[in-house]
Design goal:
The protein has 281 residues and is α/β, with parallel strands linked by helices. The protein is 41% helix and 18% strand. Helix 1 links the parallel strand 1 and strand 2. The protein binds adenosine monophosphate, fe (iii) ion (2 copies) and zinc ion.
């Protein structure tokens, strides 16, 4: 019970399990804490908090905001924001509009390639009726391509169609910068963390993003190598910043648990207190 997984997704975005299920899985994995960090939404937090109270698991309210820096998509994690802050909620709603426009763009590109997928189908795949607070993402589009037999796996859907530069990739409408996301999170009373720097394929960015006003960096991530984890840890320590980590669990889609099972990467429970005190500053 001394460890926490600070990065998991739920059905509120592109995860496959309900928020309460993530909390239950954290308990089964022997963890003491879990963060819910859905893409551009905090719609899953309340359910998770309730389950956490029932099971005696510390649930950290979180979010993962999509931003862009010099053309590279950068994810920013926020922890311990006031998830009822009206300004913060309005900002996330704007993010979801950008995301929806991007999704429409991808569907239009697929249409040009002779693959008809509708927003309605994506909503059905995501298991939701018109819910403006939950987000639809590329994994749902990948699911649709697998269902059609256009591709065999989710990975193939990204490699051929959905990853940056591939056949149906569409540059999102102007995204906010990571620094703006830090500000949003801080103004809502939270702590801002640079998510998985190892996934951006630009190693020079990690210190720049960290020095741009983040409270810490996600050194431990399911797709980081031991060398990367050590490097990012040192980077944060040298600056007196917080070192976080998590699995980035989304659940098992065709072809594996993406990015890893709950508890695949964890930090000491004491990191929760570090995040809380950074959030208070
Ligand atoms: P979006 O937020 O809609 O731009 O979609 C990005 C999400 O797609 C990430 O958060 C991952 O969950 C997922 N993703 C990205 N690349 C892959 C991949 N190769 N295989 C499976 N899922 C992926
Ligand atoms: Fe995701
Ligand atoms: Fe991410
Ligand atoms: Zn994530």
């Amino acid at each position: 019970m001394s460890q926490a997984d600070l990065h998991t997704h739920t059905t509120a975005s592109d995860g496959l399990h309900r928020p309460a299920d993530n909390v239950r899985m954290a308990k089964e994995a022997g963890l003491g804490g879990i963060a819910i960090t859905d893409h551009d939404t905090v719609a899953g937090i309340e359910e998770a908090l309730r389950e956490g109270e029932k099971l005696g698991i510390a649930v950290v309210p979180g979010v993962e905001i999509s931003t862009a820096y010099e053309g590279t998509e950068i994810h920013v994690l926020g922890y311990y924001m006031n998830v009822e802050d009206p300004v913060f909620l309005a900002r996330l709603a704007d993010q979801r509009k950008v995301r929806d426009a991007r999704n429409e763009g991808i569907l239009a590109r697929l249409g040009e390639l002779g693959i008809q997928v509708s927003m309605e189908e994506l909503r059905e795949i995501a298991g939701r009726s018109e819910s403006p607070e939950e987000t639809i993402g590329r994994p749902h589009i990948a699911d649709a391509l697998v269902r059609r037999g256009v591709v065999g796996t989710i990975q193939e859907a990204f490699d051929r169609y959905l990853a940056k530069g591939r056949a149906a990739y569409v540059d999102p409408p102007p995204r906010i910068t990571p620094m703006e996301a830090y500000r949003w999170i801080k103004e809502a009373g939270g702590a801002a963390i640079v998510a998985h720097p190892g996934l951006y394929r630009r190693e020079e960015l990690a210190p720049v993003l960290l020095d741009g006003g983040a409270d810490g960096v996600e050194a431990y991530h399911s797709d980081h190598s031991p060398e990367q984890e050590e490097r990012y840890r040192q980077l944060a320590i040298a600056r007196g910043k917080i070192v976080t980590g998590g699995s980035d669990f989304h659940g098992a889609r065709k072809g594996g648990v993406y990015h890893g099972p709950i508890g695949n990467r964890t930090v000491e429970m004491s990191v929760l207190e570090q995040l809380r005190s950074a959030a208070r500053r």
